[in-house]
Amino acid sequence: xxxxxxxxxxxxxxxxxxxxxxxxxxxxxxxxxxxxxxxxxxxxxxxxxxxxxxxxxxxxxxxxxxxxxxxxxxxxxxxxxxxxxxxxxxxxxxxxxxxxxxxxxxxxxxxxxxxxxxxxxxxxxxxxxxxxxxxxxxxxxxxxxxxxxxxxxxxxxxxxxxxxxxxxxxxxxxxxxxxxxxxxxxxxxxxxxxxxxxxxxxxxxxxxxxxxxxxxxxxxxxxxxxxxxxxxxxxxxxxxxxxxxxxxxxxxxxxxxxxxxxxxxxxxxxxxxxxxxxxxxxxxxxxxxxxxxxxxxxxxxxxxxxxxxxxxxxxxxxxxxxxxxxxxxxxxxxxxxxxxxxxxxxxxxxxxxxxxxxxxxxxxxxxxxxxxxxxxxxxxxxxxxxxxxxxxxxxxxxxxxxxxxxxxxxxxxxxxxxxxxxxxxxx
Length: 427
Prior knowledge:
With 427 residues, this protein is mainly α. Helices cover 77% and strands 0% of the residues. The protein has helices at residues 5-28, 36-49, 56-67, 70-91, 94-104, 111-126, 129-147, 151-168, 173-182, 186-211, 230-240, 245-262, 268-281, 283-301, 304-313, 319-337, 340-358, 362-379, 384-393, 397-400, 405-419. It is globular and about 70 Å long.
């Protein structure tokens, strides 16, 4: 039988997590009222408690084994380095200079399309949608007031473009998590993923050109300090040519520190302080990663993964159906957690099993995980990105949603890539 009591009990820790996080958040009317770390901790304690075939100390050891798996630990080291690099580069002014350079290169009548390209480039360079939104949203709101354009539209351009890099960047936590859980290279996933989403970005860019031909860009842009842009460019180039991600981030981190000290942006103590701030900012993500890894190991040990696989694959007979199930899973979990990285961490091991069972290319499954999680995250009004952008621009998130063209087109292209078996080489 597909439905059995033992399988449901094995999956119940995950269901408890969803009930605690989603149910209480809905009851409170605030999806950030319940810390996700607390929900994971409660579900983990419950999962350990219902594991009956081992003594308590062995159950805790099993949980710890899952939390400390080599793939998870490598993700954590990368998160630490990425946090240190992002904060160091920001403190020495690299984001501001990159923004100024992009705007200086824009023709006046291409402001909307140019702002989208700026958001795409910056998010691709720094690997974070939230960082891009923090950097560009105030600028977008200011431009809207000067040009009499609709503020919600310009902010939506920034939000949409920020997910381009969140989905593709080599130092994005979603990219790192998707590739590590599927066991494929960052560069290989990039090749597949870019073929899926670049058409969506191109269509979005053309839409913004048509919509913005009568808008003029501001004329007062500061002179560019070119040297401060180098860390982002070097990271992007080094990642594209296939260097190990740890090496790439370390190179960027060292360059940011040296350039920051040479330009007087900070001294060595300021650099170390910036790195510490960036690492501390990754703390919650690191804790979530370990809790999710331990919880999934408990669920797997109790037979929950096998049971869920049975449920999902009962009517799956093709690669197309397998890919659709991965897309649906990560989208549903993302809706529940309002965090695309957590969704990938949670679904990743299961997606890996589905891919192996039905012969799905791991580069394609990693792309599906990342793209559908970003698509979902980009369209939910209670996601961190939407709330951040709305807060910075003094808007209601619902006002921004109708203008979010890129996340919608990205999801559409990803769906077509499954239905039409595209790219054929990886399908």
